[in-house]
Amino acid sequence: MNEQYLIGGVPAEELAAQFGTPLYVYDTGTIRRQYRKMCDAFHFVPLKVKFACKSLNNLSILKLLRGLGAGLDAVSIEEVQLGLFAGYRADEILFTPNGVSFEEIQEAVRLGVTVNIDNIAMLERFGNVYGSTVPCAIRITPHIEAGGHHHIQTGHIDSKFGISIFQRRHLMRVVKTCDLNIIGLHMHTGSDILDSQVFLQGAEILFDLAKEFPHLRFIDFGSGFKVAYKPDDVVTDMDDLGRNLSSRFLEFCAEYGRDLDLCVEPGKFLVSECGTLLVKANVIKPTISTVFVGVDSGQNHLIRPMFYDAYHHIMNVSNPYGLQRVYTVVGYICETDTFGWDRKLNEVREGDILAIRNAGAYGFTMSNNYNSRLRPAEVMVHDGRAALIRRREKLEDLLATQVPLEDSFFVHHTERPALV
Length: 420
Ligand SMILES: *Cc1c(COP(=O)(O)O)cnc(C)c1O
Known about the structure:
- The protein is an alpha/beta fold and 420 residues long.
- The protein folds into two domains: 28-268, TIM Barrel; 275-359 and 376-395, Lyase, Ornithine Decarboxylase, Chain A, domain 1.
- Helices cover 29% and strands 24% of the residues.
- It contains twelve helices and 20 strands.
- The strands form three sheets. Strands 3, 13, 14, 15, 16, 17, 18, 19 and 20 form a nine-stranded mixed sheet that branches. Strands 4-5-6-7-8-10-11-12 form an eight-stranded parallel beta barrel, surrounded by four helices. It has a two-stranded antiparallel ribbon with strand order 1-2.
- Helix 8 (196-210) links the parallel strand 10 (182-186) and strand 11 (218-220).
- The chain is globular.
- The mean pLDDT is 93.
C-alpha cells in the first residue's frame, strides 16, 4: 500500500482520530456490492436472501440489509427479537435454533416467525401442540463433507446439527403421524465451501426428499460461501454457483409442479469484507525471536485468529511509505493473543494505526469482556459519511449486571486473625 487508506472514501486515520481505537468500521458500499453480486448470480430464480444475523447484529446493519431486500436468518430468540426491533416483518425471519427448549420455539411461534426444526423429538412436540395449524421447516443434514476449520463444519457424521438424511424413514413417520405442515427444507453444511459441486450434491439430497412434501414454499441452501481473507485466497465463485444451482432448481420446480423460493443465508459473504478493526500500536517489542507489535485490542475483540486459525490481513495505515519489516502483531490480553505472525508491515511506530481487515463478520458479535476490557465502538460509513452506530463501552456497562452484596454479608466468618 502506498497511499492513504480509505474506508468508504474516508481516511482510516481520520476515523481513528474522531472515534478513537479500537474501532470497528463498516463500509456500506461493500455490503451493497456483495448483496448485488449475490442477486445477480441467482437472477433467474425467485431468490430470498436471509442475512445471518449472528455474523453482524448491529441494528443499523440489519436495517441497511432489510432496505436492500434481505430477510433474516436468526439462530436464537434474541436474534428474532432484534430482527423484529430492526423492522423485519415476522414472515421475513427464519428461526433456525439448535438445542433450544420447546418454550423458546413456542415464543418464536407466538412472534409469528417460521421455525426451522432440527431434531425429531422437537418435531414430535411441535406436531403434538400445533399439528398442521402452524407450518414449519426442517433442517436436514445431508452429510456432505465441506468447510474450512473443523469448528465450522456442520455436515459431517458427528455433527450436532439437523436431522440426518439417514433418518428419513423415521422423519416421514413423525411428519405423517403428527400431521405436520412442512413448508421448507433447509440445509447448512458449514462455512468456507469452495466447490459449487458441494452445494449441488446437497441440493440433490433435498430435491429427492422434497418429493415427499407437497406443501413446500421454499428450499433453503444455507450458507458457507467463502470470501477472501488473504489477498490471493480462492473464493466461492458465486456466478458459477448461482448458474448451476439455479438451473438445477428450475428443473426441480418443473418436476415438483410449482415454483418455490430459493433461499440462501449468507453472513460472511455479505459483511466480512465491509468491516475493518482499527487498532493502535502501543508498544514495539523486539525479542530474540521476532518483533512484537502490541496493540490496544485483542482476542476479546476479534477472536477468529485464535479460535479458528483465521488469517486477517493487517496494514499499517499511518506509515504507508515506511520500509516493510517483519512483525508479529499481538493483543493486550493475558492469554495467547496473536492477530498475525510474520507479517510484513510498513515500519510500525508507537501510536501508528493498524487496520485489521475482513473483520465485519463474527468480529464484534463474538467479542467479549475478558480481562474486564471494554468492547469497541462501531462506526458505519455510508455515502462518504461516518456515523457512530454503537458507542464504546464504559466501566458502568461492565458493572450494570452485577449485584453487589452488602459488606455485612461477608463479616460472619473471619477466617484470618486480625492483624495486631
Ligand atoms: C452461521 C450460519 C449461517 C451463515 O454462515 P456464513 O458462513 O457466515 O455465511 C447461515 N445459516 C445458518 C443456519 C448458520 O448457522
